[in-house]
Specification:
heterodimer, A: 65 residues, mainly alpha, 0% strand, B: 130 residues, flat
Chain lengths: 65, 130
């Protein structure tokens, strides 16, 4: 497990927050919404992979099939 | 080996700061940060747990316990860990009702797994009682 994943996700979050603020200020609400959605999807992809890793580890360790 | 606690505490503190930072503007990504932190800590702990499980298994083989029982116990522990993880994530997100449903599901599945052991115990009691 690499700790870098936390920083990656936090960086995506900060980037999305800043972009969202900029787009809202310039009056493009729908594009701001799209940016927020894209951020969520990107982060969710990373997280889902890690969750499946955890499930596989627990499954092999505790003989849950 | 024991020094990992400092790693884990430092990791948790940094992740908490990041989560609080993100919570104002993007609460959903703050939740993901806390989920990933929990995952990493659990994975670090799991590899430590493997040696304990191996020791338990060796002990069970030495005293001739039926492998069905010991593997059932391992399964129950695994289910409890996973259910606890899921329910904590949901509780962090503020979804208390989903969290309690996950806990309920874990309890029911554990009970179903424990039924064969209970039946074996009842058989034993019935065979002892004249």
């Amino acid at each position: 497990m690499d700790v870098n994943m936390i920083f990656k996700i936090a960086a995506v979050g900060i980037l999305v927050a800043v972009l969202n603020q900029v787009l809202v200020r310039t009056g493009r609400e729908e594009q701001a919404m799209m940016v927020a959605l894209a951020g969520i999807v990107i982060v969710l992809m990373m997280v889902i992979k890690m969750i499946s890793d955890l499930f596989n580890t627990v499954r092999t360790m505790f003989q849950l099939y | 080996m024991q020094m990992e606690i400092f790693q884990i505490v430092g990791l948790g503190l940094i992740a908490a700061v990041l989560a609080v930072l993100l919570k104002q503007h993007r609460p959903e990504i703050a939740l993901q940060v806390s989920v990933v932190t929990g995952l990493i800590i659990i994975m670090l702990i799991m590899f430590k747990l493997a040696s304990v499980l191996e020791a338990l298994q060796g002990m069970a083989q030495r005293i001739n316990v039926d492998t069905v029982y010991i593997s059932t116990i391992f399964k129950i522990v695994g289910i409890a860990y996973i259910a606890e993880f899921g329910s904590q994530v949901c509780r962090d997100a503020g979804e208390t009702s989903i969290a309690s449903k996950i806990e309920l599901a874990g309890k029911v599945i554990i009970m179903v797994l424990a039924v064969p052991i209970l039946m074996a115990l009842l058989d034993l009691i019935i065979s002892i009682v004249p």
